[in-house]
Each structure stands twice: as structure tokens, then as C-alpha cells.
Write a structure and sequence with these properties.
With 207 residues, this protein is mainly beta. The chain is built from four helices and twelve strands; from the N terminus they run E-E-E-H-E-H-E-E-H-E-E-H-E-E-E-E. A hairpin with a 5-residue loop joins strand 1 and strand 2 (22-30). The radius of gyration is 23 Å and the shape is extended.
């Protein structure tokens, strides 16, 4: 069976545990996902499952995308994602996978999504620099400081931490625990925060 599913972030909340602790949780709407393709070692050289998620108008898809899904009797979907297989069973193409087919309460998972874009930021916000002296006349409050020697090597090395575009890239948070599953609503609650905006698309996988 596949190790993960596609879904979207709803927002954050909090729930009480059985022993009375208040746990911050992120609410995710996961699946149901259609199995749009099964990769096998004989045909593709590796084993994986391609899942489709997110209803969309037929006009939003290319002819190739639409025919790929319609050949498996799947309605037009916006997002396709491959997941590794766990165990020996292979799901059928065109079948539907729900939360409880993959996950159960107290499972440890990882969540991947596009993080919030924060625009052009300085080294203090982007890299956590401490900054220079705060007193009057310093003129070095939030500057990066020295970024290399002058005559040798006469250039700035690649990879030096400098100001620049922050966020808006793929981010993964691991070791999140599933706190609660609401099967009928396709809702899953995980402990802690998850990257991305509300209504942003994400993938969740068992570790």
C-alpha cells in the first residue's frame, strides 16, 4: 500500500489529550485520492503509486492529462503525485484511497508543502544573525558584517549567508504525530505546525 496521500491545510486549532494536556494541532483535509497509475519494476524499473487529487474543470487540463485520467475512469483532477509503496499489496488503478486506508491515530508522519513566501529579507530574519552593536553611532545594527577577505581570494565564496528571497520553497516537517482522525469529514489533526498557507496543497507520508 502507498505510504502517503495528498491533501490541503485548513488551519490551526488545539485539542485536549486524555491526560488533560492542551495540544496545538494543524487541521488537514486529506484525500480521498484516486489511484491514477501504478508503477512496477517490470514496466518502469521501480515500484510506486501515482495519486490524483482536487476536482477541476476539464478545460483546465491538457488533452494528455485528461486522457490519462479518463482512461482509468477518474474525473478531472488538478494534482498528481507519486508515493513509494509499503508492503506487498498493489492498489488497483481507478480505486479510491481514504485517510483510514493509510493512517491511524498516533502514527508518526512527515508533511511537505510550499512554505509561505516572505519576500526579500535581511540576514537577521533570513539566517538568524545576531546583528551588530545597538548603541548610537554603530551604523552596523542589522548588517551581515564581513563576507570575505579583500585581496585573497578577491571574491565572495558561493554559499555565504546573505540577504535574499526567503520562503516560497518546498519545506518538510518530520516527526508529527496524528492526534485525531475524523473519517467522514476527511479531516486529520497532527501535532504542531505545518508549512504553507491555509488552503495550500500538501503531501503527508508515514515515517
Amino acid at each position: 500500500m502507498t505510504k502517503g496521500l495528498i491533501g490541503k491545510k485548513i488551519g490551526m486549532s488545539q485539542v485536549y489529550s486524555e491526560d488533560g494536556r492542551l495540544i496545538p494541532v494543524t487541521i488537514l483535509e486529506i484525500g480521498p485520492c484516486s489511484v491514477s497509475q501504478v508503477r512496477t519494476k517490470e514496466k518502469d524499473g521501480y515500484t510506486a503509486v501515482q495519486l490524483a487529487y482536487g476536482d477541476v474543470k476539464e478545460s483546465k487540463l491538457s488533452k494528455a492529462e485528461f486522457s490519462h485520467l479518463s482512461s482509468k475512469s477518474i474525473s478531472p483532477k488538478r494534482y498528481l503525485q507519486e508515493f513509494a509503496l509499503e508492503g506487498e499489496g498493489l492498489p488497483e488503478e481507478g480505486s479510491l484511497l481514504k485517510i483510514t486506508d493509510i493512517f491511524k491515530t498516533k502514527d508518526v508522519v512527515k508533511v511537505s508543502a510550499i512554505s509561505k513566501g516572505k519576500g526579500f529579507q535581511g540576514v537577521i530574519k533570513r539566517h538568524g544573525f545576531h546583528g551588530g552593536p545597538g548603541k548610537h553611532g554603530s551604523r552596523n545594527h542589522r548588517h551581515p558584517g564581513s563576507i570575505g577577505a579583500c585581496s585573497t581570494p578577491s571574491r565572495v565564496f558561493k554559499g555565504v549567508k546573505l540577504p535574499g528571497r526567503m520562503g516560497g520553497g518546498k519545506a518538510t516537517i518530520i516527526n508529527l504525530k496524528i492526534i485525531k482522525i475524523l473519517e467522514k469529514e476527511n479531516i486529520l489533526m497532527v501535532s504542531g505546525s505545518v508549512p504553507g498557507n491555509a488552503k495550500g496543497i500538501l503531501t503527508i507520508e508515514k515515517i
